[in-house]
Amino acid sequence: NAGVTQTPKFRILKIGQSMTLQCTQDMNHNYMYWYRQDPGMGLKLIYYSVGAGITDKGEVPNGYNVSRSTTEDFPLRLELAAPSQTSVYFCASSWGGKQETQYFGPGTRLLVL
Amino acid sequence: GIQVEQSPPDLILQEGANSTLRCNFSDSVNNLQWFHQNPWGQLINLFYIPSGTKQNGRLSATTVATERYSLLYISSSQTTDSGVYFCAVERGGRGSTLGRLYFGRGTQLTVWP
């Protein structure tokens, strides 16, 4: 199993541009999550999904959108990039939701200039 | 949300030394995980430990849920232990929120040869 994979690894965006961060897991997990990590901080939850077609907001959802059309994929969309979205983005998955170990992808480093 | 505080924020050790990292949380939890973020940014799950004690090689963890803290012990530290250690919790009871983890700010560990 590859686990949780993310693309791209690194990206530079100009203010106002849009992009999609890709996340795929091959563990047949139902739950998937997007977190962001700012320098010197812990991770904060952006959005999560409990299954295909079902998504919900986390702590810091503003400026982002998600979709979950398949069990495997959970892309994160930035529509109008802002410098405040400069961060490292992590995707994670777990089989269940509550009381389950979450497994993390390698992260996408995003710089907005 | 739930507050998660980790201490110390920074720790510098010589190889072979032992250390204890602490995580305090402000509410009841039904999920607590310890992660190691290596210098390349990868998050590795160390323990899923909402209560009790677990050991894995040189690492062990104890969570005392009734007193709202968890400890991570690293014995005979090695240079490869360097990185940031995060504690993450999911609020329990009626406040439980489907696997939403709240992270502390981490302990930056540096182990010198």
Residues in helices of chain A, as a percent range = under 10%
Q: Uncertain runs of chain A with pLDDT below 50, 5 residues or more?
A: none
Shape of chain A: globular
Characterize the biggest β-sheet of chain A.
7 strands, mixed
What shape does the CA trace of chain B take? Answer: globular
* Major β-sheet profile of chain B: 6 strands, mixed
Q: How would you state the average pLDDT of chain A, rounded?
A: 93
Structural class by SSE content of chain A: mainly beta
| Number of distinct beta strands of chain B | 11
> Do you know the CATH topology of chain B?
Immunoglobulin-like
**CATH-level-2 architecture of chain B:** Sandwich
Overview of the structural elements:
The complex is a heterodimer of chains A (113) and B (113). Chain A has strands at 4-7, 10-13, 19-25, 31-37, 43-51, 54-57, 64-66, 76-78, 87-94, 103-104, 108-112. With 113 residues, chain A is mainly β. Chain A has no helices and eleven strands. In chain A, strand 4 (31-37) and strand 5 form a beta hairpin. In chain B, the strands form two sheets. In chain B, strands 2, 4, 5, 9, 10 and 11 form a six-stranded mixed β-sheet that branches. In chain B, strands 1-3-8-7-6 form a five-stranded antiparallel β-sheet, with no helix packed on it. Chain B has no helices and eleven strands. Chain B is mainly beta and 113 residues long. Chain B is 0% helix and 58% strand. Chain B has one domain (4-112): Immunoglobulins (Immunoglobulin-like, Sandwich). The chains are: A mainly beta (113), B mainly beta (113). The A-B interface holds A 31, 33, 35, 40-45, 48, 50, 56, 58-59, 88, 90, 94, 96-104, 106-107, 109 and B 1, 4, 30-31, 33, 35, 41-45, 48, 50, 86, 88, 90, 96, 98-106.
